[in-house]
Specification:
The chain is built from 4 helices and 6 strands; from the N terminus they run αββαββββαα. It has about 150 residues and is α+β, with helices and mostly antiparallel strands. The chain is extended, with a radius of gyration of 21 Å.
């Protein structure tokens, strides 16, 4: 897989006209901040299908027309950031964001700092009060063992 710099990505995106679909692989901090987190730093890696160049107001009005309603919807002004003309990019407080409409979340995984993939839906455990990391690891092992038997 070829990685692009921000400048190279912006250049490629500026060449696209109209709406288009893409698959993105995004890596974010899973933010497991609870006391007793036995996993340490964890990254969430997601693969998603998105629509670039999506115009919310136009899409809503097309749907209204299909439903037999009047196409008179007007979206509110942007709440934050400003669109970089001719791109799908939004600039906000010195940072650049890719504006997308998520069509489908294909898969996600939680990866520890040492490269291990956690075999569970970590959001369940992220919301738990954890007193003992060992007890949590045993619970996880029990779940992953039981799910293999099922």
């Amino acid at each position: 897989m070829k990685l692009l710099t921000t400048v190279a990505l912006a250049t490629k995106l500026s060449e696209i006209r109209g709406a288009t679909f893409a698959t993105l692989i995004c890596e974010t901090d899973a933010r497991l901040k609870k006391t007793g987190n036995p996993f340490g730093q964890v990254q969430k890696v997601s693969r998603v299908n998105v629509c670039l160049g999506f115009q919310y107001e136009a899409a809503v009005n097309r749907q209204r027309t299909r439903e037999g309603a009047e196409a008179d919807f007007e979206s509110a002004p942007r709440q934050w950031g400003s669109r970089i003309p001719g791109t799908f990019l939004v600039e906000h407080k010195g940072r650049t964001y890719l504006e997308t409409k998520v069509e489908r979340s294909l898969e996600h995984a939680y990866i520890t700092a040492d490269g291990r993939e956690l075999p569970i839906n970590i959001t369940t455990f992220a919301e738990m009060e954890v007193e003992d990391g060992l007890a949590l690891r045993e619970a996880i092992n029990g779940i992953s063992t039981n799910s293999k038997k099922a």
